[in-house]
Design a protein that fits this description.
The chain is α/β, with parallel strands linked by helices. The protein has helices at about 15-25, 45-55, 65-80, 95-105, 120-135, 140-155, 165-170, 175-180, 205-220, 235-250, 265-270; strands at about 5-10, 25-30, 30-35, 35-40, 60-65, 80-90, 110-115, 155-160, 185-195, 195-205, 225-230, 255-260, 275-280. Strands 10-9-8-13-11-12 form a 6-stranded mixed sheet, sandwiched between helices. Strands 2-1-6-7 form a 4-stranded parallel sheet, sandwiched between helices. Strands 4-3-5 form a 3-stranded antiparallel sheet. Strand 3 (about 30-35) and strand 4 (about 35-40) form a beta hairpin. The two termini are about 30 Å apart.
Length: about 280
């Protein structure tokens, strides 16, 4: 068995499966509750099923993993030869996942450092990838955590939603913030800031909002070497077109990922989501 620092994250990181396998990243799933069914993200519910449920206004909620699920994941990783674990998770402002991981870490068979990245989706994924690369280079637990936190500090996430209703229903924004997107039928642009979802700008139409999203991302990227992820829910053509424009517009672009978000994030944003993560290397 190889002795190493192992990386654990959760299913909202939305890293490509081949990337997780290549770097040995373990993923702990969150749960989507659809009606009276509790389904694991990534294996038991598709984004298409989720989008259809949301469009029919069915009850959809989400749930963190239990400490027992984390404990089992840590046990398996330790048995694979890990001498330490760095467990990186979505913002504690958005989910209790971090808290569950902290509880499980206390009883783990090897030392576990649990990190609230303040991120979500590929903003979290890029942190996990940076941590994995630091571990592969022989980094200690402290060095791996530093690599992840450095990546998180430089990463920005912006997104457009057709409506703020889903975020409001899920308690991810308050009623006052929800009014931001309802007055005069404006289209809201949002950002992830301090681990919270906050209003960024109001734009009159969807097309103008997406054009403005492109401008914000290009300005944020500047001339630095950056990785970019374009996320969507039930809007593949929108995402593909935006990705093509960013390829032409961002001179320092290294990797660009285009993917549909999973059911957990989709449950809180609704169909039509278009998000962009900018992560300097």
């Amino acid at each position: 068995m190889s002795r190493h620092v192992a990386i654990v994250t959760d299913s909202t990181a939305y890293l490509p499966q081949r990337t997780m396998e290549r770097h040995g990243i373990t993923t702990v799933p969150l749960t989507v509750v659809l009606g009276d069914q509790a389904l694991e993200e990534g294996t038991e519910i598709s984004t298409r099923s989720l989008a259809q449920a949301l469009q029919k206004r069915r009850s959809v909620t989400t749930s963190r993993p239990s400490p027992q699920v984390f404990a089992e994941a840590y046990r398996k990783v330790a048995e694979s030869g890990a001498t330490g674990i760095v467990s990186l998770h979505l913002s504690a402002e958005l989910s209790g996942t971090y808290d569950a991981a902290v509880v499980a870490a206390r009883e783990a068979p090897v030392p576990v450092r649990v990190v609230d990245t303040g991120m979500v989706a590929m903003a979290l994924g890029f942190c996990a990838l940076a941590a994995a690369q630091a571990a592969e280079a022989g980094g200690t637990v402290d060095e791996v955590v530093t690599a992840a936190e450095k990546r998180a500090a430089g990463t920005s996430a912006y997104f457009y939603v057709d409506t703020l209703d889903f975020l409001r229903r899920g308690g991810r924004i308050g009623a006052a913030q929800a009014l931001f997107g309802s007055a005069l039928a404006v289209k809201p642009l949002l950002q992830l800031r301090g681990g919270r979802i906050e209003p960024l700008e109001k734009v009159r139409t969807a097309s103008k909002a997406i054009a403005r999203l492109e401008e914000i991302v290009a300005d944020r990227a500047g001339g630095a070497q950056v990785d970019i992820a374009v996320h969507h829910l039930a809007a593949p053509d929108r995402a593909s077109a935006l990705a093509d424009r960013l390829r032409a517009r961002v001179p320092g672009l290294a990797d660009l990922h285009v993917s549909e978000v999973g059911a957990v994030i989709g449950a809180h944003t609704g169909p039509g989501l278009l998000g962009v993560v900018v992560s300097p290397r």
